[in-house]
Amino acid sequence: MKKIISYIVFAFIAITNINAQKYFTKTGEISFYSQTPIENIQAVSNTVTTVYDTESGNIQWAVLIKSFTFEKSLMQEHFNENYMESSKFPKASFKGQITNHTNVNLQKDGTYTVDVEGELTIHGVTNLVSTKAIIVVEKGAINATSSLKVFVADYGIEIPSVVKENIAKEIEININAEYEELSKS
Amino acid sequence: MTMKKIIIALLLIATIGGGIGFYMFNKPLESMSSMKSHFKMEAASLLEAFENDENSANAKYLDKVIEVKGSVVKIEEKDGNSTIYMEASNPLSNVIFQLENSVSGIKEGDQVTLKGLCTGYLMDVVMVRAIKI
After folding, report:
1. What is the predicted ipTM?
2. Which of A29, A49, A70 has its CB closest to that of B123?
3. Is B91 on the interface with A (CB under 8 A)?
4. What gap in Å lies between CA A29 and CA A145, rounded to an integer?
5. How far apart are CA A61 and CA B93, in angstroms?
6. Where would a tag sit more exposed on chain B, N or C end, judged by fewer CB atoms within 10 A?
């Protein structure tokens, strides 16, 4: 019986240790930018949920399409209803890995450039993407920023010809997250 | 003479039409205080609806203005954005509100009613453009 209890205690400690290597936030930021000679369009969401496992380098994030806010209400309406079909596909997500995560020393303050690759799902379409990210470690806290460019057409998003000149074919996506240790919250 | 009148009338219509079009095109987001609430509910029942059946909860609540009542467990301020976490039925999940303006007069532990736009469910139900009522 004692043995069983010690196993359970051991298992519990092991689980908490694994948890301690996970970092997360629910208030990460994703913004995107479309630039054409006719108009520039920008939108931002500050409710991105992301988890980073420092042990495996696995990184995931998810964002609700309807949480993006635009300057103009008509843009937001078109974005949701015509292009992203956000009632049908409410989320966008990324699931991947920092391939050289062992370069990041969490015990030491500093700025590290890392490679990220994984699956990006937007509008129900998944593609493999790779990019670079910058990780800043400061007093045990992790701040990650990254950006990547995606072609609208790769994600099955159709832009009607009337507004073709107003919306860029390639959109720049910027990500910024301040991670907290999971066990702390 | 009548031709002239017709032209003037057409010009007038075009100008008004164009004006309305321009106004609609540039219209900013409507402020939450002037939007009508579709639902009034407790934070726990809103989260449960998404946990039980996300698809039907999406169909019912997405893009809807909801007044949610509950207890504040966490307030986060980051780069001028205020986020309020409201306690729900599950210790790991909350109803999260991103506020339209910065937080004022709300502390952790308070019972509050917040009105916001429901954007869906990740690990939590996420509401945006929320205000205190």
Report:
1. 0.83
2. A49
3. no
4. 9
5. 16
6. N
